[in-house]
Write a structure and sequence with these properties.
Length: about 260
């Protein structure tokens, strides 16, 4: 019997991930918040749903699946609480929740999954999912995302880039997809991982290279001031998943 995955949020990451799963013979239910994007989902054989968790009270059969992947950016705690209430009444037992390394402060140190987080929405939502006994959730804290049309060389436009001597924490979309797939394949649920390539060039090095890749002029930087940075350690993910990053050199990628 074919497995079914539901992807809440078929955007920059969710859509290609859905297409990948379909190629693997998996039934995929995908959500969008607009009528216009429904046709795109249908064209890729994704079972389409319109779901905005800030407005939706019930989720019908969208939550009838083997794995639920949550990759949205809602800013409302109440919306997540309502989503969880609906999940509790559904067959869902395995969840991947896409979070962010923005949960860590710039404390001039290297952060692991055991370190403190800031007081904000995402850490609170993470706790709601992790502590719920009705299902098992793995939290993936992704670093800065790049790949496809999301090219760092286009960022900051005409603005000066702050903290030139700070360090970057990044991950390519292909690595995001491979990590998610591996977690599901190896049934690693109920854990939390930092997902960030283990290479941290300075912001000056990285953005100069990113502009060079696109053939753009060199970026300009703010004058160095009090150094504030964070480095994200992926050591736990690398060890637990035995994972090797596809894009492991942030000064060696191209436009792909």
């Amino acid at each position: 019997m074919k497995k079914t995955y539901s992807i809440l949020g078929c955007g920059w990451l969710g859509l290609p991930l859905a297409k990948h799963f379909i190629e693997e013979g998996i039934i995929v239910k995908g959500s969008t918040t607009t009528e216009e994007k429904l046709q795109i989902l249908k064209e890729h054989n994704i079972l389409p749903y319109i779901i905005d968790i800030e407005e939706t009270n019930t989720y019908r059969d969208f939550l009838d699946c083997d794995v639920l992947l949550i990759m949205i950016t809602s800013k409302q705690l109440e919306a997540y609480e309502n989503l969880i209430r609906n999940i509790e009444k559904s067959p869902v037992k395995k969840i991947i929740f896409i979070s962010s390394t923005s949960v860590y402060p710039r404390g001039n140190k290297t952060y692991t999954e055991e370190d403190e987080t800031i007081e904000a929405l995402l850490p609170h939502v993470e706790v709601l999912f992790r502590e719920n006994q009705n299902f098992s959730t793995t939290i993936l804290r992704f670093a800065g995302l790049f790949g496809d049309k999301r090219q760092p060389g286009n960022w900051f436009a005409d603005k000066k880039i702050p903290q030139p001597n700070g360090f970057v924490n990044m991950i390519h979309r292909e690595d995001c997809m491979a990590i998610i797939s591996k977690i599901i394949e190896e049934n690693i649920f109920g854990d939390i991982f930092n997902a960030c390539v283990n290479h941290h060039p300075t912001r000056k090095e990285f953005y100069r290279y990113a502009r060079k890749v696109l053939g753009k002029p060199k970026p300009t930087f703010e004058d160095p001031n009090e150094l504030k940075f964070k480095k994200i350690s992926p050591a736990k993910l690398i060890q637990r998943l035995n994972y090797t990053f596809i894009y492991d050199d942030l000064l060696g990628f191209t436009e792909s």
